[in-house]
């Protein structure tokens, strides 16, 4: 049998990767716009500096922030609680090479070219913190329904080679994508398992969630319920189990 040093294993660099995170650090030509709650925000900033390939970063507008450095590029539609919602989409392109040369002139690492998509709507602007609370409220569920649907629509438009899903907040996006793609699920905090309800849920609650998330009740039950509880993380885990033999989850 061949030893490892005899095998010719090509070094594969990722193509375009789309990451969706409500926490973000955008270093644009006029300054920096950031929304950081903890470790994920710091990781998001590092990814935009050192990711080994082109990066598409999807995030949402925070209240009271100025995103005039980004250009409007169109609209994206979603259906939440039976209502069609239209969001504005802003785009900002950051050439990491220019930033790196100014900050680290001796660096030999190829920096990423980052395309930010910033989704704007009063539902996003109306929150008081990065992550809306309480998680069990209808308003919060509608927030995540809109967030996951717009992430999926941008995935379908951009057609990245991979979707990087940090934590549970965008994990339900895989339930809306038209074109399946490889998914990487990373968990940054063991306490955040995506379960947003402690009560046991049945068909009535499934119908309620189906209306909010614009999904069939059967999919809500099969892809989001764990032991009778609603879990927003399960869809991504289920997707990776079914399509990737469980490969693609990192904690």
Distance N to C terminus: 34 Å
Order of helices and strands: EEEHEEEHEHHEEHHEEHE
Q: Tell me, what's the shape?
A: globular
Strand order of the largest sheet: 5-6-7-4-1-8-9-12
General description of the model:
- With 251 residues, the protein is an alpha/beta fold.
- 30% of the residues lie in helices and 26% in strands.
- It contains seven helices and twelve strands.
- The chain has helices at 39-50, 96-103, 122-125, 138-158, 203-213, 217-224, 234-244; strands at 17-20, 24-28, 31-35, 55-60, 71-80, 83-95, 113-120, 162-166, 183-186, 225-226, 229-230, 249-250.
- The longest helix is centred in the middle third of the chain and has 21 residues, at 138-158.
- It is globular, with a radius of gyration of 19 Å.
- Mean pLDDT is 83; it is low at 1-11.
């Amino acid at each position: 049998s061949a030893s490892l040093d005899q095998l010719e294993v090509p070094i594969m660099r990722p193509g375009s990767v789309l990451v969706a995170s409500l926490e973000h650090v955008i270093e644009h030509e006029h300054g920096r716009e950031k929304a950081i709650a903890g470790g994920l925000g710091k990781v998001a900033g590092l990814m935009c500096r050192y990711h080994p390939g082109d990066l598409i970063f999807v995030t949402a507008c925070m209240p009271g922030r100025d995103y005039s450095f980004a250009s409007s590029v169109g609209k994206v539609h979603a259906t939440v609680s039976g209502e069609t919602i239209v969001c504005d989409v802003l785009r900002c392109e950051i050439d990491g090479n220019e930033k790196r040369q100014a900050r680290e002139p001796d660096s030999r690492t190829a920096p990423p070219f980052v395309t930010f998509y910033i989704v704007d709507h009063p539902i996003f602007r109306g929150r008081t913190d990065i992550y809306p609370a309480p998680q069990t409220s209808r308003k919060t569920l509608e927030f995540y329904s809109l967030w996951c649907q717009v992430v999926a629509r941008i995935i379908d438009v951009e057609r990245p080679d991979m979707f990087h899903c940090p934590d549970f907040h965008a994990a339900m996006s895989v339930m809306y994508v038209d074109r399946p793609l490889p998914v990487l699920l990373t968990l940054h905090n063991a306490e955040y398992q995506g379960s947003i309800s402690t009560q046991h849920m049945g068909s009535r609650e499934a119908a309620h969630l189906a209306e909010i998330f614009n999904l069939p009740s059967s999919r809500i039950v099969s892809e989001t319920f764990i032991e009778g509880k609603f879990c927003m993380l399960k869809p991504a885990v289920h997707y990776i189990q079914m399509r990737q033999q469980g490969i693609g989850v990192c904690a």
